[in-house]
Amino acid sequence: MRSYAGRVKRRRRARGLVRTLLGGVVLGFVASVTVIAAVYDAETSRPTPTPLGLSFVRTGAYLTRFESWGAPSVHPVVLIHGAFESVDYWKPVATLLSRTMHVEAYDLEGYGYTQRVGPYNASTLATQLYDFIRARHLNHPVLVGHSLGAGVIARFVLAYPHVAAGIVFLDGDGLSSVYPGTTLLPWIPHLYETALYRYAVRNDSLVATIFRAACGPHCPVLTPAVLSMVQRPFEVAGAQSALFEYAEKPLVGVSVAQLREVGRFAIPTRVIFGADDNVYPSSTPRLTALRLGAPAPEIIAGAAHLTLWTNPGAVATAISRLVATLP
């Protein structure tokens, strides 16, 4: 009996020692990661300055960055970018459209180089679009929204139904949804969140991989200038807090019922998608056009989710066809 009891005691002591060692390893790992994160945060704390020579217009309580192309036209075109994008993504399309019409594009609140003020939600983005149109004196514009930009247009039309002369949904269904995994964000300590964010946006290889995935197999060469175009807006002051505030909420957009309501306003509408879009199911273009009461969607062969970047000629042609039908 004594021998058995001794063996039990030795096993318990061994298990206790193992637990103590494992606990020490875990605590040591957490402490090391925390120190590394703190040092990295300190070394990357200085934000990247906004580029010189940009144009801004006041929209409510903050300044919105914008660009314009082409001479005045009867129906100006306003280009609204998607999530993680900026005005610069539209330049290939805007350059082509500007040959026959006036074109403007602006950075959504919380993206690009527009002042980070907040709050960041669907309502404020619709208000920003309205304030931008008024500030720039754009009468009855055609609104073109890429991806999340389609959701901004849907929200805008519900709030201001008699402003747009036409609307275009490009690679976007206008619906609100939840980003996968975003419910975990509030549980991540701010120190780690900041370190992970800064590492991700400054990692050239990671950013290039994500961009090419959205771009698809026919993506143009990712030059250093293009890589800087993608990264730099996420390194300016306030970019991190704005992005995480967006991520903790449903994606900007409307419900299916509200999208059908947008269609009932009978605004001339077009739906354009890349044939190989890797963000939405293949049925999305047809369903979106049906809900909006639009003609059959225009599908761009060989394009993925960034058609505005990879196929600017096809996108510009589709937009021009809609503008040509307007009185």
Please, could you describe this protein's structure?
- The protein is an alpha/beta fold and about 325 residues long.
- The protein folds into two domains: about 1-45; about 55-180 and about 250-325, Rossmann fold (3-Layer(aba) Sandwich).
- It is about 45% helix and about 10% strand.
- It is built from twelve helices and eight strands.
- The chain has helices spanning about 1-45, 90-95, 120-135, 150-160, 190-200, 205-215, 225-230, 240-245, 255-265, 285-290, 305-310, 310-325, and strands at about 55-60, 60-70, 75-80, 105, 140-145, 165-170, 270-275, 300.
- An eight-stranded mixed β-sheet has the order 1-2-4-3-5-6-7-8, sandwiched between helices.
- Helix 2 crosses helix 12 (about 310-325) and helix 3 (about 120-135) packs across helix 4 (about 150-160).
- Residues about 25-45 have low confidence and may be disordered.
Supply database-style keywords.
single chain, 327 residues, Rossmann fold, 2 domains, 8-stranded mixed sheet
Taken from the alpha-carbon principal axes, the silhouette is globular
The CATH homologous superfamily of the largest domain is called Alpha/Beta hydrolase fold, catalytic domain
Number of helices: 12
What is the CATH architecture assignment of the largest domain?
3-Layer(aba) Sandwich
- Helix and strand sequence: HEEEHEHEHEHHHHHEHEHH
Name the poorly predicted regions: 25-44
* Biggest β-sheet description: 8 strands, mixed
Give the strand tally: 8
For the biggest β-sheet, the strand order reads: 1-2-4-3-5-6-7-8
* N-C termini distance: 101 Å
CATH topology of the largest domain: Rossmann fold
Structural class: alpha/beta
| Chain-averaged pLDDT | 87
Number of domains: 2
Using only C-alpha atoms, the radius of gyration works out to 25 Å
Estimate what percentage of residues fall within beta strands: 5-15%
Helix content: 40-55%
Which CATH C-level class of the largest domain is it? Alpha Beta
